[in-house]
Amino acid sequence: MIKSNITATTTTNPSRKRCSRVQNYNTNTILNSDILHPNRANISKDELRAKLAELYKANKDQVNVFGLQTQFGGGKTTGFALVYDSPEALKKFEPHYRLVRVGFASKIEKPSRQQRTSIS
Question: Which residues make Cβ contacts (< 8 Å) with residue 82, sequence separation at least 6?
């Protein structure tokens, strides 16, 4: 199922280095990456989606970023990203809660557990 397993390191400036391990699947690209952001506390998911879309020549609507964990003290974040072939593929394969986070779906409003059990 896996086409290739590539290790890529992109350096634009010696002080700013971004490493990612890329696995290409038939339907999407999975990125497990370390993002170095010196002089910043953290990096926004929206900004990261835009940067990854630019790097992989995709639309921002085809990229989903999740699982970001910033190292204590800032400067380094690790996380996952999925780059899909189309926005329709993203909507088809992503879980509903991630679609809500990105803005492609609306949250289903329902009463809390305590209110649901007291009604029955």
Answer: 28, 29, 30, 31, 63, 64, 90, 94
